[in-house]
Amino acid sequence: MTSAALIPLDPRNLSLLWASSERIADIAALHARLFDPPWDADSIGRLIEHPAAAAFVAQVREPKAVAGFVIGQIAADQAEILSIGVAPEWQRRGIARQMVEGLIRAARRAEVERLFLEVAADNTAGLRLYEGLGFAVAARRKGYYARPGGPPVDALILSLAL
């Protein structure tokens, strides 16, 4: 069987789809692979089915796979990215960028003025992505993320004017 890591990602092979209830199990499974502690399917379902939700999955057509997800919320003139993740075998191919850009487009259509997200200060790949999209540090939460066997890591609150 061919590994997804060996298959070049043709942009025509990837679709950004609104997350629906049919995708809750896929998102929960991927979240569990990427985060500790993971969000359970019920929590994810409540988030993506909420009227303020803006959530997408990145669907690879061949081999068929959910390569990533982004879950956001839009409230009045602000929006927030609550969680984003790309399966390890599909990382570093621009999928996270496409998902954030999709959320930015949805937020602009909803007349959002500012988009926020939180990221660990040691997440260099994430910081590089967000800074490349124009996000800037708005605040810092000292020692917010616990790290097993190591010191806690600051959380950075990033903001993007839309």
Describe the structure.
It is a single chain. With 162 residues, the protein is of the alpha+beta class. The protein folds into two domains: 95 residues; 50 residues. It is built from four helices and seven strands; from the N terminus they run βααβββαβαββ. Helix 1 packs across helix 2. The longest helix has 15 residues. The chain is globular.
Descriptors:
162 residues; alpha+beta; 2 domains; seven-stranded mixed sheet; 4 helices; 27% helix; 40% strand; disordered N terminus
Structural class: alpha+beta
Strand order of the largest sheet: 1-2-3-4-5-7-6
* Low-confidence spans: 1-6
Query: How many beta-strand segments?
Result: 7
What is the domain tally? 2
- Secondary structure: helix percent: 25-40%
Order of helices and strands: EHHEEEHEHEE
* Mean pLDDT across residues: 92
Q: Which geometry do the CA atoms define?
A: globular
Number of helical elements = 4
Cα radius of gyration in angstroms: 16 Å
- Give a quick account of the main beta sheet: strands, pairing sense, barrel closure: 7 strands, mixed
Strand content: 35-45%
Span between N and C termini? Answer: 44 Å
